[in-house]
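Q: Two folds, back to back.
A: First:
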Amino acid sequence: MGTCFSKEESKREQIEELKKENVTLRQELKKLHNEFGGENYVLKDDFAEIKKMTAQVTLPAMPKNSSIKTIVGKRVRFIGDVDDVTEEWPGVLGEQEFHTGRHYWEVEVGEKQSWRIGVSSKPVAHGEANREMLGESYWMLQLQDEQLSARSAEGEINLQNEKPWKIGVHLDIDKKNISFYNTETKTQIHSFSLTGQRTIGFGFYPYLSPGSKDRDLLAILT
């Protein structure tokens, strides 16, 4: 009996040691990535944990804005006049409103020349979300004239990241943070802190704008 107990105890100790070694190895790996310029790289296991938070995101069937069209609740394209500057950033909010927890979704931007992807905490009727209607309640990535940038009420930051093909959006409401990922390279593009009065008492809605430079689709993949 004592021998069996001793063996079980030894196994538990070995398991605990392996767990500690695994944590140490992960810390060392992250340190190496930082030292060699890979500070935005997301480890495979960490990215898998983020993807466990995948949420169903859908778009309204008939957005009020007539310059965009949604298809089967998952795709949106610009159908307006490309020469009309007043239609530069027609947008749409997702039908889901998130109040707590973590939520993740992916959007394929492909070779589009312009787009905006992010969240807004300002509800808008019929899913319409034009630039003027978002006010100060938005946090997004933008591509325009081959320049990738991060935009919010605090201003605009030009980013040096390569142009992504697919973007992962991770909204962590409890920690008041939203992060954007290049899903193919498993790197973080940018993150925002969701703080301030404009986040109090509101939920968060997925936001997409196909821009007005082309008629290619933005496609929600989750």
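A: Second:
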Amino acid sequence: MEPDTKENGAEKKPKTVKETLLNVDYWKLRWAQRKVAFHSANVHKFLAEYNDRLLVGREHIKILFPMCGKTVDMKWAYDLGHVVVGVEGSEIPIKEFFEESGLEYTVEPLTTIAGNRYKTTDGRIQIFECDLFDFNKDLAGQFDAIWDRGAIVAVNKDQQKRSRRKEKSTEIFLAMLHRLAGPCPPHVILENQVCDLYGDKCTVEKVCSVDSFKEKHKSWGITELNEDLYLIIVK
């Protein structure tokens, strides 16, 4: 059945929802205004519980953290002996990450794209202050694993496939909030859409889904909220 587009003989205009333009300037402003409720002071529960599925016994691997903010997940991986590469558009969380982690670091400008490279004195943590879509393999090489905690749902929908094309590791952990409605960001991506994004060149496994609804989420206009974890392996 076609939707009714007329009311009292006059054609109705379809209702549209204006989506927020999610670009590097938007996220810089969020950090500047400290509107970063998505940041957690704890290692993500999925990474702590299911890291064996991502690491599969490998030691000293290189892990990419896209749109990393100042996540303590990077320090967790570093302390386990892994090589950490983060990509973040705002300098604020990058500096705070190193200071709060008690790590000495250096800063140098990037020469091929706009931005800076922050790295520990031992070189095992590098965070690139740049637009995610400018970041490329010439800057940091290939990765053994990717921990995407919310990056895919924090870019514009028409950029999600472009973001996926940058992910050429063997293992990808994709963790994201899932709700049926509510404000953007984060975008809503359903399980079949995850398969559409990755399934042509990867195997996609839904590892778990956890009820994450809290009282504060009622202000989003929603009544349920799950957090899903996917393991994506490049074929």
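Q: And?
A: Helices lie at 24-32, 45-55, 73-79, 91-101, 137-140, 160-165, 191-198.
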